[in-house]
Write a structure and sequence with these properties.
transmembrane; Translocase_SecE/Sec61-g; protein transport; Prot_translocase_SecE_dom_sf; transport
Amino acid sequence: MGYKKSILEFIEKSRRVLKVSKKPDREEYFTVAKVTGIGIIIIGVIGLIITLLTQILGK
């Protein structure tokens, strides 16, 4: 019966989070999308540089 209590506690905590959260407006959404895109590009460039360096130095 302990699992029912933990499930109910999880549901109550989830409700609390949903009450205080808000839907992002258009500007906030695009800002987050830009930052995420820039991060993905930076990580890709770092991976490309590491791959090129290992190929050059490996020979």
